[in-house]
């Protein structure tokens, strides 16, 4: 092993005392000192009868192999070799600014000639790795891409080859990053043109591809009002996004959270809320809320989506028909976060006070909802939530059946806080 191979710190006892190189075949003299066999053999063959390190006269010139040390050196050498290999690999894969320009230039030229991207997969990988290293790198790639048709070419391929998942999986992560950096889909294409690629990837892609495409869709629907309006006309989109809420062996809470974010963005347009209801949003999302183990972020978003749905008549009807969903909403009050509590109370107020649906009121009573409302009024909630809680108590005050349920399920002496 050469010295320049060992730029990583070498343990001192791995070095031969004579040459200071890492020993290949360590052997020990009778003095207990270990040397590399070739080095000590040359010393002895030169007529010396002493130990080079201690200068003691040798009683015997026998060389005893030090197998333990040899094994330790071998393990260490293998580790160094692996590190060097990784370093060399990273060095080969890394590119500088000039190389980025060349990669994009050749990429664009090759596509113009051959109209396909399979041959450019290695370039895509290098550009993606470079872009992911830092925000500065991403901005540089985006600036170079803006000077050419690079992003438009990626978009064009997605539009015309949505079923070529092998290449699409390589394109989408970089396409999404550049799209976010560019700031708008409308500058490079039309939402309806890219729609088939989005749907196909969400239906048939790997989990990684689905996540990348969902993030791209989340960005499009939250920043581009024109694209959001256009995409919202496609009924299949709601069904595909809601499919990530289906609780089965393939359920992925991360995918569901991003898909719900997309649905919330779409539901910000009032006309889309009825479409969501018709696509089965209350049933699928409500079931997930009542049966799945969700984190705080996902629960907040699910309740926010249901809150938006509850603002339309069709949404309130579906919620009132789904007693399990209403009870699941009640259970989230004071259990998840302040945000989740606010969304949940708003939904309950909409159903029980605004819509005055007796089925919803019964579901709230059965799930001990009024006890939670009483506790909520004693908490440090916002004025808006406090007012809605007070309104809910008034509704149940005049509903003798609800009062009966309340009296049997919750014995309290805090009636002084009731606003009547």
TrEMBL record:
The keyword Chloroplast does not apply. Pathway: Protein modification; protein ubiquitination. SMART domains: Ubox. Its EC number is 2.3.2.27. One of its GO terms (molecular function) is ubiquitin protein ligase activity. Keywords: Repeat, Transferase, Ubl conjugation pathway. It comes from the Eukaryota. One of its GO terms (biological process) is protein ubiquitination. PROSITE patterns: U_BOX. Residues 9-83 form the U-box domain. InterPro entries: ARM-like, ARM-type_fold, ARM_PUB, PUB22/23/24-like, RING-Ubox_PUB, Ubox_domain, Znf_RING/FYVE/PHD. The keyword Transmembrane helix does not apply. It holds the Pfam family ARM_PUB. It catalyses: S-ubiquitinyl-[E2 ubiquitin-conjugating enzyme]-L-cysteine + [acceptor protein]-L-lysine = [E2 ubiquitin-conjugating enzyme]-L-cysteine + N(6)-ubiquitinyl-[acceptor protein]-L-lysine. Functions as an E3 ubiquitin ligase. This is U-box domain-containing protein. It comes from Solanum tuberosum. The gene is LOC102585949.
């Amino acid at each position: 092993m050469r010295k320049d191979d060992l730029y990583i710190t070498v343990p001192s006892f791995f070095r031969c005392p004579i040459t200071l190189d890492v020993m290949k075949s360590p052997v020990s003299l009778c003095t207990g000192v270990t040397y590399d066999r070739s080095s000590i053999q040359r010393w002895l063959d030169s007529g010396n009868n002493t130990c080079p390190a201690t200068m003691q006269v040798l009683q015997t010139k026998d060389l005893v192999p030090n197998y333990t040390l040899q094994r330790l050196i071998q393990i260490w050498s293998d580790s160094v070799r692996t590190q060097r290999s990784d370093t060399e690999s990273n060095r080969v894969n890394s590119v500088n600014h000039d190389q980025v320009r060349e990669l994009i230039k050749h990429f664009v030229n090759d596509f113009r000639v051959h109209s396909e991207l399979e041959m450019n997969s290695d370039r895509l990988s290098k550009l993606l790795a470079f872009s992911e290293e830092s925000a500065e790198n991403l901005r540089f790639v985006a600036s170079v891409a803006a000077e050419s048709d690079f992003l438009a070419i990626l978009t064009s391929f997605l539009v015309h080859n949505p079923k070529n998942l092998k290449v699409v999986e390589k394109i989408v992560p970089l396409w999404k990053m550049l799209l976010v950096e560019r700031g708008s889909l409308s500058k490079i294409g039309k939402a309806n043109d890219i729609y088939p690629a989005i749907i196909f990837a969400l239906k048939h892609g790997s989990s990684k591809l689905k996540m990348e495409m969902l993030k791209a869709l989340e960005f499009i629907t939250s920043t581009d009002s024109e694209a959001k309006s256009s995409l919202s006309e496609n009924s299949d989109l709601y069904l595909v996004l809601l499919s990530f809420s289906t609780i089965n062996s393939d359920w992925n809470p991360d995918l569901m959270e991003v898909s719900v974010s997309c649905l919330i963005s779409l539901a910000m347009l009032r006309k889309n809320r009825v479409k969501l209801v018709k696509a089965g949003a209350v049933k699928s999302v409500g079931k997930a809320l009542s049966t799945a183990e969700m984190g705080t972020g996902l629960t907040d978003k699910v309740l926010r989506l249901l809150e938006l749905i509850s603002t339309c008549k069709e949404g309130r009807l579906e919620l009132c028909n789904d007693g399990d969903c209403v009870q699941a909403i009640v259970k989230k009050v004071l259990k998840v976060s302040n945000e989740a509590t606010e969304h949940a109370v708003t939904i309950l107020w909409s159903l029980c006070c605004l819509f005055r649906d007796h089925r919803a009121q019964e579901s709230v009573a059965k799930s001990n909802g009024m006890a939670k409302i009483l506790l909520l009024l004693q908490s440090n909630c916002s004025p808006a939530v406090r007012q809605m809680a007070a309104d809910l108590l008034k509704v149940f005050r005049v509903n003798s059946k609800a009062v009966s349920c309340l009296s049997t399920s919750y014995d309290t002496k805090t009636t002084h806080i009731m606003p009547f």
